[in-house]
Design goal:
With about 70 residues, this protein is an alpha+beta fold. It has 2 helices and 3 strands; from the N terminus they run E-E-E-H-H. Strand 1 and strand 2 form a beta hairpin. The protein is elongated.
């Protein structure tokens, strides 16, 4: 097995409900994760019940396509 090339240092803070702040290397401000209306509907939350933010799945898809 080769040497470890990189260890990502990420900290995630729960903000309540589905909202989380991820502190990622290279960014001065946290990335906010949550849910938008389509995700809220899937989980049975009412539209507008939580502030709208992209979900973690949205970020994963964006990263995979980028």
């Amino acid at each position: 097995m080769g040497e470890i090339a990189y260890v990502s240092e990420v900290r995630v803070e729960r903000l309540g409900g589905p909202h989380r702040a991820a502190y990622l290397p290279g960014d001065d401000e946290p990335t906010i994760y949550g849910m938008h209306d389509a995700i809220a509907e899937h989980y049975g939350a009412q539209p507008g019940q939580f502030p709208r933010h992209a979900s973690t799945i949205d970020h994963l898809v964006g990263a995979a396509l980028g």
